[in-house]
């Protein structure tokens, strides 16, 4: 059975019209004769969306009981049994009620697709898993319901339902999205213009990436290699030379001229595995490219222009940035160079040849190390000096050998010398062998004259072959040594990367790995003080440097105190102590140093983020406070003012009953306002550590009735069970009453009609436990701590029903008095708040600020 197709309607925020557009598509398909059913549509009380359902068939929802309450979910089995051609399933990121077959609705959708049903669904950009942290930074709200990006990217069609922030806010103000009592808070919080603009940009950029994927897939399927300039992509080619940073910055400026352009840095490595570029330079250039918003890539190839253009065409690049050739003019006479060749073969890709300070200076490459060790070269010279005369004597003793045989034997000897000692001993052996052959074995004998042309040709071929073989042996030895060195460097860097990734603190792990790799006593990272920068002589003083990080014993505190100092940038230097490194090892150390700079920057960014987190949390709380207070202060003030204004109005005469009702309304509103202000003040004192507490011995049988009386008529039905022999508690009477008022008010708010909360008390091990029990919907255990955060309410999207200070303040007050508040699940469903306080001891009351 073919798999069904997935069509997703993507929106930047609630209310843009995703569900409405999805239902329009369902009607269009139904009118064409397609079998369409509604598996689940959430209208959120929006009359236009509800009316759009119309005559479409709906599969009845499934009712699930959870924690004493009933919830409805999509009946997945019912939809599968119905086997429609198209199923409409709203809210892809929705979390199903526990007891459902799947945890998430997107998993239900996957089952429908596997059964061959095409699914129409909706999702908001803030619910994508990869964007969860970005959305939290923008809106200050962490989305608990997310859907994996892969599930959305796998859709055959993703349609963006777009609306400007201003139009969406007008829809909100007209009551087309949320209920009227939630509009003010929503407009002041989540639906601010800045939030909506940022979310809209996220949705557009994500969809653009999705379109890019589809375009790449289409080009691959159709075998299209030509560049399509759908989006500017700038590729900068890096050789690993010092001009790389100039090229990257130039390419970044080119990319910045086009909004949304991509920057890609690429290095073509030799496919023979030999080290060609400087790894330290490439490491620094990679960091620079990524810091400018680009990406770094490395490809293999022997033909650099071809490999470079293959990569550019593969990523659909529109522009290619190359550096002007570093080769001298003489070298350019024999080869056009990479830049000119690439430009000639680039086709529609624009090529920028950028001049730089290194252009035309020639390649100042590293000194080529000897292919063989000094000992082997000495052995080769000794073998030449001793072996050639000995071979001559042996051949003179053997009769009946022709000149051809003598030349072949001498040639074998030269090859042997080349294998032992390399090029120069072999060249000496070839020259000496040719002279010995001419003197002893070529007529006329014992002269350097050659009488016959054939003998001259034979000796010439001997010398040429001997030199060629010596050269090949020497090059092979050098390449073998370079390949072994490159393999060791690559293995070292791979080990470093693995240890850094696995470690919790990358910088110490990196330095320790560097110390172990080169058997050093200590490694230190030094940062030059700002006042010492640019002043000669001061960089050698210990006070001019700050030890940022170190491993090992007695780390160096100035660059001159160590055996090797490797500068990272203008201010950072890595100093090695214990032994002086060879020049060949310095290359890999420079790569270590570049990674150390990255690790140091990451650590500092982490520290800055940790330091900024309390400030961000305080700012978030202030924002939530202002948003909440804007409603909670306004409501009682408006009620009290309306009552007082009515009483003062000369146009209306009220009877005694109406006057009493208006006065009661004003009194209740002002009491509510007073409680709100008191909560805010107490919460600020708690956070500042300046809340005054007077601990005294008080009985719960005295304080509980006072708390219920303060709550008024709603608390009349609350049942209490407080034993008469219950010991008194050590607490501040006023604060304890406030705690009880908040706990009972919370229980009343969530208790079902006809099932009022219950208050019980008991004593255990020097503590008194008071339980406020309700049989409401309860709270999932994983969210127990969440409800004690200030300005939060479980399941709320706004703050229109209160500032959410009650439980947070209650816990703070209880802990200030030496007690605690913890939630428990009520047997049979609901929530029980357990207040634990120390039992009173016969001591005098004490007074002091909160610790």
UniProtKB/TrEMBL annotation:
It is an enzyme of class 2 (transferase). Its EC number is 2.7.13.3. Gene3D superfamilies: 1.10.287.130, Backbone structure of the membrane domain of e. Coli histidine kinase receptor kdpd (1.20.120.620), Histidine kinase-like ATPase, C-terminal domain (3.30.565.10), HUPs (3.40.50.620), P-loop containing nucleotide triphosphate hydrolases (3.40.50.300). It catalyses: ATP + protein L-histidine = ADP + protein N-phospho-L-histidine. Its main location: membrane. InterPro entries: HATPase_C_sf, HATPase_dom, His_kinase_dom, HisK_dim/P_dom, HisK_dim/P_sf, Histidine_kinase_KdpD, KdpD_sf, KdpD_TM. Keywords: ATP-binding, Kinase, Membrane, Nucleotide-binding, Phosphoprotein, Transferase, Transmembrane, Transmembrane helix, Two-component regulatory system. The chain crosses the membrane at residues 378-395, 407-436, 456-477. Residues 628-841 form the Histidine kinase domain. GO terms for molecular function: kinase activity. It is a multi-pass membrane protein. Pfam families: DUF4118, HATPase_c, HisKA, KdpD, Usp. It is found in: Cell membrane; Membrane. This is histidine kinase. It comes from Micromonospora andamanensis. The lineage of its organism: Bacteria, Bacillati, Actinomycetota, Actinomycetes, Micromonosporales.
